Amino acid sequence: ELTVLGKAQEFFQICDLEGKGFVTRQDMQRLHPELPLSLEELEKVFVTLDADGNGSLTPKEFITGFSQFLLEQIALKNDMVQPSEGETAFPVRYEETMSGDEDEEFQFSNLMNRLGAAKVLDDETDVKQLWLQLRKEEPHLLSNFEEFLVRIFSQLQEADNEKNELECALKKKIAAYDEEIQHLYEEMEQQIKKEKEQFLLKDTERFQSHSQELECKLLSKEQELEQLVQKQKRLEHQCTQLLSGKEETKVENTKLKLTNQELLRDLERTSHELSLAQQQLQVLQEEASRLHEEKEMEVYRVTETLQREKSGLLKQLDFLR
């Protein structure tokens, strides 16, 4: 069954050469050279797999149905399974037999295939661990993370395409330079040969004069060749600088995004701490106000007591007098 699933995934990639993420009726016809089925039979298979009738097949619909179709074809071929009356063409749905880990593995593999990660990533372990962690702990962030991956891989793919285009253009220029140089050498050899044949018929002085002219021309051609080589080296250096600059810019953009996120988290934490501090300050102010009022009341009571004692003492003093 694993082999059949792998074959079904391979067929899906054959149908979806553009990387759309789904398969149409026209895409299904691409399997005609791969399978012993006519175009009409492939059309019937597509209609059977398209249970919702929307005219397209998702990776899960295609791989689930087509795997079951291949298993039934193998069983019929070996006379091992005889389908009973009323049995549907696809009685067992793949998602019912697929375990959770296999489903996650399939979805991640399908995501990487759609993004073309194999072309730009040597190791998908870190991305996979982060994807699984978000899927389990923060599922509401999974779509944002996948959109981020789409943008990143799109930019990496564009950079890779630009690199390939630059390399191809450089190879073409190098080939053109080599062809031009070879042509110059051939012209020089033919011209030298022709001039030598002519000089053999003339006097030595004239032969020497022409020989010097030819040497000057040869020297000039050699200088042109050296200039072409230097130009080629400059182009290679510019190509390397462009590629290095793009990589550095992408790394710097990623660092800036991470720094921005950290600053936002710090701002939120500081705002929260400020709010707590304001609440504590208000509580302290209320407590200070209450203590001040109590102190004033205590002073008033003490003053009144002293006043009464003073009045009593004055009365006693008058009595003693």
The CATH homology group name of the domain at 1-77 = EF-hand
Mean pLDDT: 78
Coarse shape: flat
Biggest sheet, in brief? none
Distance between the termini: 125 Å
Q: Element order, helices and strands?
A: HHHHHHHHHH
Q: Based on helices, strands and strand pairing, what is the structural class?
A: mainly alpha
Low-confidence stretches: 79-99
Classified by CATH, the class of the domain at 1-77 is Mainly Alpha
Word description of this protein:
- The chain has 321 residues and is mainly α.
- Among the domains are: 1-77, Orthogonal Bundle (Recoverin, domain 1); 119-181.
- Helices cover 81% and strands 0% of the residues.
- The protein is built from 10 helices and no strands.
- Helix 1 (2-15) crosses helix 4 (59-77) and helix 9 (142-199) runs antiparallel to helix 10 (204-320).
Gist of the model:
By secondary structure, the chain is mainly alpha-helical.
Tags for this model:
single chain; flat; 321 residues; mainly alpha; Recoverin, domain 1; 81% helix
Itemize the secondary structure elements and their pairings.
Blueprint: H1 2-15, H2 25-28, H3 39-49, H4 59-77, H5 94-97, H6 100-115, H7 117-120, H8 125-137, H9 142-199, H10 204-320
GO molecular function, one term: calcium ion binding
InterPro entries: EF-hand-dom_pair (IPR011992), EF_Hand_1_Ca_BS (IPR018247), EF_hand_dom (IPR002048)
Coiled coil: 149-294
